[in-house]
Amino acid sequence: MKINYLKIYFNRIRYGYYYNNYLEKKKNKKILQKIRLQKTAKIKEPLVSVLIPTYNRSKLLTERSLSSVLRQTYQNIEIIIVGDHCTDDTEKKIKEFKDKRIKFYNLPKRGKYPNNPNNRWMVGGSIPANKAIEISWGEWIAPLDDDDEFSDDHIETLLKFALENDHELVYGKVEREIEPNHWEVLGSYPLQNGEISRISVLYSSKLKFIKYNTDSWKYGEPSDWNKWRRMGEAGAKIGFIDKIVGKHYLERQQRE
């Protein structure tokens, strides 16, 4: 898809992107500095919250995404799945796992998203994702989409790397399916749009005050990239590990 940079620029002017971003950057820097001053005990095996927003994809969710989390080599986790007002058998299938670490919350109504399919893709799932952040308890947060999967050592690898290097946000590489059964490797440093995947990230709960922006489509930014960018601009200590930590499957439903 061809990107219309001129249209993005005028939309950013129209919606006050540059000024608002400047103000938020200053505010977020102060908030993060204040949080860093709070004394917290160092935990050898901190709780990691795996957050999965979902909408009527019970089969993929349970057979692919959720199963990949339960296979993790690191097991001190909670799994928070938030439905964007699911109307299928998602809750029933989740209960069949009978795992107390899994929590499911279904929004009472579906979030409002743009009508344009591409704009909707940019922010789809942001509302349940923000709810998942809100109700999480972990010292670290690992986002996952309901149709993707972690490598078996995803959490162990990223958490060890973050703790050893005093990072607040770390990310690795993912295999991305660009056509059916055709894969490429995505992920590089420094942080840039198109080279970081939502499922490749682990970040400290110090940063959970920075939520997904459901209006990021107005600026031509996917909500996940918009979030990582704002974390970086707030001064988060970011690290990249040159290792594949998951699979990002071909997107087949996000524009629905």
Structure, explained:
With 256 residues, the protein is of the alpha/beta class. It has one domain: Spore Coat Polysaccharide Biosynthesis Protein SpsA, Chain A (Alpha-Beta Complex), CATH 3.90.550.10. Helices cover 34% and strands 22% of the residues. The chain is built from eight helices and nine strands. Strands 1, 2, 3, 4, 5, 6, 7, 8 and 9 form a nine-stranded mixed beta sheet that branches. The longest helix has 20 residues. The radius of gyration is 18 Å and the shape is globular.
Topology (SSEs and partners):
Elements: H1 5-14, H2 17-36, E1 48-54, H3 58-70, E2 77-83, H4 90-95, E3 102-106, H5 117-123, H6 126-134, E4 140-143, E5 149-150, H7 154-165, E6 169-179, E7 182-186, E8 201-204, H8 223-233, E9 238-248
Parallel strand pairs: 1-2, 1-4, 2-3, 6-9
Antiparallel strand pairs: 4-8, 5-9, 6-7, 6-8
Helix content range: 25-40%
Structural class: alpha/beta
**What are the segments in which pLDDT stays under 50 over at least 5 consecutive residues?**
none
Q: Enumerate how many helices there are, as a single number.
A: 8
User: The biggest beta sheet, please?
Assistant: 9 strands, mixed
Order of helices and strands: HHEHEHEHHEEHEEEHE
CATH superfamily membership: Spore Coat Polysaccharide Biosynthesis Protein SpsA, Chain A
Bin the strand percentage. Answer: 15-25%
Q: What is the correct CATH architecture? A: Alpha-Beta Complex
Number of domains: 1
